[in-house]
Design goal:
The chain is an alpha/beta fold. The chain folds into two domains: 68 residues, Roll (Ubiquitin-like (UB roll)), CATH 3.10.20; 158 residues, Cell division protein FtsQ/DivIB (Rossmann fold, 3-Layer(aba) Sandwich), CATH 3.40.50. The protein is 38% helix and 25% strand. It contains six helices and 13 strands. The strands form two sheets. The chain has a nine-stranded mixed sheet with strand order 6-5-4-7-8-9-10-11-12, covered by helices on one side. A four-stranded mixed sheet has the order 2-3-1-13, covered by helices on one side. Helix 5 links the parallel strand 7 and strand 8. The radius of gyration is 38 Å and the shape is elongated.
């Protein structure tokens, strides 16, 4: 009796296993079919991508080798007086005969904008044979004189120029700029008290005092008296203060904050002195509640020297 029950139980289990296997076999076949199709699709996609890439490279190389887009004309427009077309060509390595499609325009633009004197640049490819390059220069508004270390030892005088944003530019080499523009550079306001470590060509000056001096020049240019008075020297060696010397012989002391209000007071004091037939000898504008003033008789003051003619405008140089 007991043996009969065990035999029937084993028979039932075998039947159940066979039934499960028969039901799972179609599922396995479907899975294998899906895997095979997935491999086929993946290999086909890979082959198409490789074929298109190879075909594109082959076709592009054929076009480049055929000389269909050889560079014949480089049109260079320069807004300013400092940079020359020859310098632009040398900086970017452009020459006639190069394939126009092979020129890396972003690299050309980046190389130009790494030049300290260049504020912005644009490069345009005009098929089939023209390349347009436009360069906008930085406009120097002040100069700095310091001592630079020579490679053979010792020091040598060095002049740097700053634009309104405080970007440092090296002095031009002899023969690079016109005599008129060089004279304009020499008459720019001189900023004293700047450390050599703060001057790195192509970068903004690393001095808050110099930034204040540049803000002063920007504000001063918006006042009416800027047509009659010239700022010659700004000394920033005293922390928190600036000493300004003008072409009229006046020495003024200003703080770094509230520049427009201090300039307004300067204009009022100057007008009052002129009406009284006097000139400013020294004036402290850093004190808010009064203005310590020394004046001199206009007849006894130093004669006002005529200003040199400034280079007019920023003409476009088109090559």
């Amino acid at each position: 009796m007991w043996f009969g029950k065990s035999s029937r139980k084993r028979h039932f289990e075998r039947s159940e296993v066979l039934e499960v296997r028969s039901r799972s076999e179609p599922v396995r076949r479907e899975r294998r079919r899906l895997v095979i199709w997935a491999l086929i699709v993946a290999l086909s996609t890979f082959g198409i991508v490789v074929g298109v890439s190879y075909g594109w490279s082959w076709g592009r190389q054929k076009v480049l080798d055929a000389g269909l887009f050889a560079l014949k004309t480089v049109e260079i427009t320069i807004d300013g007086n400092w940079v020359t077309a020859e310098q632009v060509r040398r900086w970017v390595g452009i020459r006639e005969g190069m394939n126009l499609l092979a020129i890396d325009l972003p690299r050309v633009r980046r190389d130009l904008e790494l030049v300290p004197q260049v504020r912005s640049a644009s490069v345009e490819r005009v098929l089939p044979h023209l390349l347009r390059v436009r360069v906008v220069e930085r406009e120097p508004v002040a100069r700095v004189q310091t001592l630079a270390v020579r490679s053979e030892g010792g020091f040598t005088p060095a002049t740097y120029y700053l634009d309104e944003m405080g970007v440092v530019m090296p002095a031009p080499q002899p023969g690079e700029v016109s005599a008129d523009f060089l004279q304009t550079l020499e008459t720019l306001p001189l900023i004293r008290g700047v450390a050599q470590r703060d001057l790195c060509p192509g970068r903004k000056v690393g001095s808050a005092s110099v930034e204040s001096a540049l803000r002063l020049l920007g504000c001063f240019g918006r006042f009416e008296m800027a047509r009659e008075v010239e700022v010659r020297v700004i000394d920033v060696s005293t922390p928190g203060l600036m000493s300004v010397m003008t072409d009229e012989g006046a020495i003024l002391t200003l703080s770094h904050t509230g520049l427009e209000e201090q300039l307004r007071r300067w204009a009022l004091v100057r007008d009052a002195c002129m009406r009284a037939g006097k000139t400013i000898s020294s004036l402290d504008l850093s004190i808010t509640n009064n203005c310590p003033l020394r004046w001199a008789e206009a007849s006894n003051s130093l004669p006002v020297r005529a200003r040199p003619a400034k280079h007019s405008g920023r003409p476009n140089k088109h090559v």
